[in-house]
Specification:
Layout lengths: L1 H13 L3 E13 L2 H7 L1 H21 L3 E4 L5 E5 L2 H19 L10 E13 L2 E3 L1 H12 L5 E4 H7 L7 E7 L8 E6 L14 H25 L2 E2 L25 E2 L2
Helix pairs in contact: 2-3, 3-4
Amino acid sequence: MTYSIIGATARHTRSVGMERRLAAILSADVQGYSRLMHEDETATIRTLTAYRSLMASLIRQYRGRVVDDPGDNLLAEFPSVVEAVQCAVTIQRTLAARNAALLPHRQMVFRMGLHLGDIVAEQERIYGAAVNLAARLERVAEGGGLCISGTVYDHVVARLPLDYSVIGVWMGQGTPAPVRVYRVQIEQTARPPIRRASAPLTRMVWPRTRRMARAVRRYLGKSVRISSRVNVGRERVCVPVCRTSSVASATAVPMR
């Protein structure tokens, strides 16, 4: 009877609603939010509401979920780290286009940090060291920028054609191992086209080929004769080869 009670208690404890899973965590906040609010609260709240709605829409488009958005912060999770980086880059580029229509001192730029790790989910909330690390990466990022951990970098560097730069190694309280930190290039840069043979290179190659062809033709014209034995009675017919004809011939044999 005692065993049954212990077993029932254990089953009840496991079914509280907590779940462990691997997820990509995106953390974002507004750079200079206090200044914006101090200058114009109404305009800041209006812009923040519009931008947060746009961000939530893009997060859903990339199969993510907004976990929480208190104040100027936003926390989201994604089942795919590749889609998480794609979403973050898309958000920053879209917001940059929106900010271009605003006065410089009223532009609202977000800093973003992204990490991949194990989290604990309880109903709609998430917890764990991965969430805290994503928030720390966000603080390292510049306004309008994105910082990712080395774990994220290892997963996406071969899959996403973006430019990455190393910031350094971060070691803080609660992190047993150093964390590599990378910056993702947000601005779209013109990539160099596929290198093809240039005109000067072509001129360097073909004259040599033509000279070799002329030398071969001169040699053939002066000293080469290819004969074909054709039995016409008892006569041997010698057929000279034209300079423009092919040297290879199935019926031609060397002269004796």
